[in-house]
Amino acid sequence: MLIFSVFKTLTDQQVTVELKNDLSITGTLKSVDQFLNIRLDNIKVSDEARHPHMIAVKNCFIRGSVVRYVQLPADHVDTQLLEDATRRGDNSTKAIVLTLTIKNRNAETLKFHYG
Amino acid sequence: MFFGFEQKDLEKGKQAFRTDATHDTEEVPVFTWGDESYDGLGDALQEGGDELNDETFGSVGLVGKDFDFSNTTLPKSSGLPNEQALPPQKFAEPASSDTLYALRRKQDFTTLDSDQPFSSSSQSAESIWDNRSLLSSLPQLDGIFNQSKQAFAEAPVSELPMPQTQKWAPQSSNSGIRTLEEIEAEMRAAAHQSRVQQRELSLQQQLQQEEDRRQQTLHEQELQRQILHQQEQQHQLYLQRLLQQREQQYQRSTPPRMLPASQSPRFLEQQRQLLLLQQQQRAQELQEQLMLEEMERQLLARAALQQQHRQSPIPPSHHRPPSLTPDVYGYQRRQTRSQSPMNNDHRYPGIPQESSPFPSPQNIQLQQRLLSEMAQAEFIRNIQNQDGQGINPVEQEALRAEAMRKILEAEKMEEKRRRKAAKIAYMSRYNDLMTQSDKDFITRIQVSQLVTQDPYADDFYAQVYGAILRSRMGLQSQDERVLIFGSGGGVGLGLNGPKGGGRRPSAMQRMEQQVERIVNNTRKREEEKGVHALQSLQGALGKTSGRSYKAAPRQLLQVDPASGASPAISQAQAFKDPGDRVSNGAEEAAKLGRATLGKAADTTNLIRREPLTQRETLTILEHLYDLVLHVEQLRRDHSLAQDEQQTVEWQQQYDTLVDEIWDSLRVMVPLETSDPHPFISLLIPGKGKRLLPRITRHLSDQKMMTLLTLLVACFSQLDVIKQASVIDYSQDTLERAEAERQTQAFLGNAFQCILPVVAKASLRLVTGLLGLLLDRSNIIMVAQTRPGLALLTLFLSRVELIKADMVNVPEEFEVPTPEEAQQWQLVYDHFFQLLGPHFPMLFPSARMATATDGQVSFDIIDQPAWHFFAALGLHAVPEQQHVLITALREKILDNVTSANKGWVRNDEERQLKLDNVNLLLHVLNLDSSLIVL
Lengths: 115, 933
What we know:
The complex is a heterodimer.
Chain A: H1 2-9, E1 14-19, E2 24-32, E3 38-45, E4 59-62, E5 67-72, H2 79-87, E6 96-102, E7 109-114
Parallel strand pairs in A: 5-6
Antiparallel strand pairs in A: 1-2, 1-5, 2-3, 3-4, 6-7
Chain B: H1 10-23, H2 41-44, H3 53-57, H4 97-115, H5 120-124, H6 134-137, H7 141-154, H8 162-175, H9 180-191, H10 193-253, H11 265-309, H12 326-347, H13 361-386, H14 393-427, H15 436-450, H16 455-458, H17 460-472, E1 482-484, E2 490-492, H18 505-537, H19 567-576, H20 578-598, H21 614-637, H22 644-665, H23 678-682, H24 686-696, H25 701-713, H26 719-722, H27 724-727, H28 734-760, H29 763-776, H30 779-783, H31 786-808, H32 818-835, H33 844-851, H34 859-875, H35 878-900, H36 907-923
Helix pairs in contact in B: 1-4, 10-12, 11-12, 11-13, 15-18, 21-22, 21-24, 24-28, 28-31, 29-31, 29-32, 31-34, 34-36, 35-36
């Protein structure tokens, strides 16, 4: 629920979603659900020459399971709070390693052991 | 061509015509026998055997008139004995130039007569010249022949053999046998000459053309007839051959007697006749059809013409009546062929070609070409007329291209629009497939999945982030961001709360109820399922081994924090075990607390230990974070405590947690336990530095004093002091960047939390802290770091403030005793003495200049040093001030000189240089402007 919670605060922000098929889509985050399915508006594919079929696409719904990374806008992420939030996670047996690439912050990659 | 009449000189006219006639040999056959110019070749001809001509060429009476090109030799009126028309082929015509001349004239006048009533007298006189029009002459053909025969019989020449005729002919030409009517006609013609001359010319042309055409037609018809005959013969041959073949086949394949009746020769003969009959019938039918088609064609041609008048863009050359397929031409040809033999008799008497219902294909094509050309010309003329002034072809072409382009564009747009509409229509098939209640239902199911027991905790990030954001924006709205349901569950609504703000509260309530019901049902079902599965289904399908059925991936890191199996962990466990920590820490804390306050160091009861490892440090820090979060949560929940009882409970809980944090910080661990001290070890990682302010918020002043003392005592153990020299290298390395980042983190977090403590510290404490620092640290090294310089500046500033307060508001302040002041002065003197020789090196720029030759703008990074010297100068006695000035003289002069002489990049830098210098000089009651270079 943590990342879901984080994404809730990022609605209407610019994010870049990297998919497992190496497609990288930048767009305005419209909504996220508990499966981390993502809806984006005004999308733009980073390498349009390689994916000409995406030029005409203006918005999209991304199934959560196909997402590899999500690049978040650093200005809109409270890293300290995010660290705290990860520490608050319930002690379930699941150990989820979340990799968040936060742009513009010294290319810092935070790895959270969730749970 | 017709110039005989101008002079009325007949001889001349004759002469002229004679010369003219020679040119017209193609049109009118000219026979020169008997003339003076006759070359006599005719005599050389072996003429004879004409007796059988009749048998050879057919009967005399009915000879076609295809040789009659001029149509002038035909006698018109009956009862004229001296008619000159001669039966053809039997006799060579003794035509003279005169006769020819007359013939031509006659021709002309006949046409004239037909056009206008020439004169009643001429008609009544039944002159041979009059009423010569083609149409009038035609029906009398049969009679003519009879008359001409009679006339011929009367004429003397008719009996003569040919050689004689030759001799006779010149006589007749010289004698000029002419009738009165002839002369009269000539005179009349002369009288009307001026009136008709123009007309005549055109008529002459017309006539000639007509003649030409007729000749052509006749020729063609002749040809066709020949071809037809040939083909008919071929056809007959073919039929015969076919029949023979069939007969042969039957004879070959079957015995003759086996032939059916239909195959008998007599039957075949009958069949052939029948076939011929049918052919004829069909020919007639086709003829009728062709006539109809011809009419249709003309109509269509006219229609097409009209169409072309209306700017038809179709190229005229391709324009053809739609019903007239190319096959029609072949069909027509066939038709003509098949019917021509039967129509020969009716056709040949000079029917004008235009009225013929059977035009040859060439003529059709010609006609169409002419029509299309006319239409094109008309079209162009129309365009020109429309535009008033004539448009040149280029503009016209451009116009047409433009029009074409526009049409294409419009078509494209239309196509696009249609495609779009089709797509929308295609997609809109699913419009309103779901009603609003359907959508609500799905939304509720989705919401029910988000319901948790602790909505706040599960939506922690969003909740806190929202709170921080709101507080930062100054919003105090405390509307609930969490949707709490009656059964304890709830949904975190995130940052923006419910989106559908316009919804009525009742609708919201209804949704809550429905969601709750769904959640409860689900829960119940799961419970039932769980019970059911446990009781009856477990192991029903055999034993499931391992974890293969689990969807979760195998854990790669299998660290069990509960078991202390490895020795490394067990060591860490010693620190981590709460019970152990509390019992030992409490005693040590009590002991060290007193010692720290009283004395800087207490070495009694010391247990030396290895410094904390990185892993231990991080583990402790994580534990501290958990505690801090817990405490923060408690603080947040403080408002929820309503009565005394709860408040007390809360306070107890809070105190316990804070104590635990304090112990975990290991501030009370003896100073010499390890190097670095465990507390200092916790400050080495970035997150330790960042954690300190969040902890100190909950610590009492007393504890903060202790913490500050420990920090100062172990100041040189800090990584930011140890590795400060890395920053002095101007190269950009990862190491340097990391040191820089850590320094920033220390100054921004850890240092900030000791500021309020120092700000409240007494002179005695500050003196003690400075003494402690001097005692336990290499003050020269510490002073050459940014945190060290900042700390020293902080102390000096605090003392200066205390001094100022002593003067200004002594009654409000705990006035330091003279011993304390003296103690401070002692420590200060010692400090000044220690640092004195290294004053210039306190400037980062100086250190960096020695390390490298990099020319960076040092004024900003030197500023803390100038601040420090200013603070130092405040406490300095005049001698110390002198020392200070002397030590910094070069630096001060350097700054002032470069500022005054303009060795700076901009005014800002110049001002900065002067400001830095003035920071110190003002303290010493000096100013940079006083310095005279």
